[in-house]
Amino acid sequence: MKDEGSSFEHGFAALCGVRWIAVALMGALFSIFLGIGQASAQTLPVSSRASLSDILNKPLSPRAAAMGDAYVAVPDDPNTIFTNPAAISSLEIQDSSRLNAVSLSYSHYVLDLNEGAVVYEHPVPEGFLFAGDFAAGVQYFSGGSSVEANAVGDPIGTFNTGDVALDLAYSSTASNGLHYGAGVKFVSSSLVSGSSVQNYGASWMAADLGLYYALERANMTFGFSVLNLGTELGTYAGVGDPVLPNVQVGATIRPPHLPLLLSLAFQNLTRDREGRNIFYALDDFCVGGEFTLGKVVRLRFGYQNELRHELNVPTGNGFGGFSGGIGLHIKRYDIDFALDDQGPDFGSFVRFGLRTAF
Fold first, then answer.
1. 12 within domain boundaries
2. Is 181 part of any domain?
3. Cα dist from 129 to 78, 212, 236, whole Å
4. Containing structural domain, residue 6
5. DSSP conformation class of 354
6. Residue 143 neighbours by CB distance under 10 Å
């Protein structure tokens, strides 16, 4: 028995060594991505269009949107692939016979603008190489169809606008309970497609890194992620739009004797402070909460401070930056609904989602 225990310990140590070697290799690869991305950003002009990395920073999940996108430290959701790849391995499925998780999300904005995501998560049991959790996701944004006109304003056809991002992530847990994760993503953007004159498209390759830790005795979790470390593969007809990194840090807590999850997150910590002090970087924060009412109902609320500032127009910002939603947990299905207000000019965006395990 002693020899068997010793063999198990050596085997386990070897397996952990393989994992950390793999993580180190991925880290080196991501450093290369970052270096290339920085060089590209220095040599290519920035387009007047909002950065394509916007599609990578939006809260596509209705649960995340309802909680103000304060999601970097939120556990037990496959949609954390978009905010912190390390939290993927925090997913808990009550019925052990159903190991795989799937999430579908859809958001409707105004007119024919819509967005959505599909996520699939699969755990790899202990004893296998790369034991942990793998997840794959697809994000899309559709800008709808617009009329194309010539120089004198006569219609000559239509064109479409849209973005697609493909994500792949891996997460596992170290012996001290620290979750670590990494992901890669490919993004394709069509600013103009289907035009009879000229199409404009671009593409990017980027990577994500994350850490997640649960302090169970305090009912707290902590998350840290570096998103969108990447480089452009193609430009809008020579006009560059570099991927912008997004550094996030946050925490959640469940207060004693309350059926409530509170979450706080700081985003874009490395953004240009424009000569201002460090507190300007901390101004991009968001908070959220989730009440658990019985076994079925979850009520959610959130607030995004930076979004509210961006929506401050002469007519006022109304409830811009505030969000809310409801979730229904029925057996192995989670049905989510969210409204996040975008100010008086755009109103509230409607989001639906479905999560399940099989």
1. yes
2. yes
3. 21, 21, 41
4. 2-255
5. E
6. 20
Q: Six-digit token pair at 355?
A: 């999560």
Residue 59 neighbours by CB distance under 10 Å: 28
Distance CA 190, CA 200 (A): 6
**What's the domain count of the chain?**
1
- Looking up tokens 């992901």 gives 183
Alpha helix stretches (DSSP H) within the chain: 2-43, 54-57, 62-66, 278-281, 305-310
Query: What mean pLDDT do residues 279-308 have?
Result: 91
Q: Which residues of 192-218 are buried (b: 16+ CB within 10 A; e: fewer)?
A: beebeeeebbbebbbbbbbbbbbeeee
CA distance 187 to 167: 9
> Looking at this protein, which amino acid is placed at residue 248?
Q
| pLDDT category of residue 232 using cuts at 50, 70 and 90 | confident
- CB 256 within 8 Å of CB 237: no
Q: Compute the distance between CA of residue 322 and CA of residue 299 in angstroms, rounded to an integer.
A: 14
Task: Look at residues 205, 78, 59 and name the one whose alpha carbon lies nearest to residue 134.
Answer: 78
Amino acid present at 178: L
Angle at 33 between CA 31 and CA 37, to 5 degrees: 115
pLDDT range class, residue 164, cuts 50, 70, 90:
very high
Burial of 252: CB neighbours in 10 Å, binned 0-12, 13-18, 19+: buried
- What is the rounded distance in angstroms from the CA atom of residue 90 to the CA atom of residue 96? 15
Integer-rounded Cα Rg, in Å, for the chain is: 22
Q: Is 332 contained in some domain?
A: no
In a domain, 111, yes or no: yes
The predicted pLDDT at position 69 comes to 94
User: What is the amino acid identity at position 291?
Assistant: F
Is residue 202 pLDDT above 90, yes or no?
no
Task: Please say whether the beta carbons of 356 and 329 come within 8 A.
Answer: no
Task: Name, in order, each residue with C-beta under 8 angstroms of 145's C-beta and a sequence gap of 6 or more.
Answer: 112, 158, 159, 160
Confidence at residue 54, expressed as pLDDT on a 0 to 100 scale: 59
What does DSSP say about strands 155-173 and 179-193: parallel, antiparallel, or unpaired?
antiparallel
Q: Which of 22-36, 99-113, 178-192 has the highest mean pLDDT?
A: 178-192
Provide the pLDDT for residue 126.
77
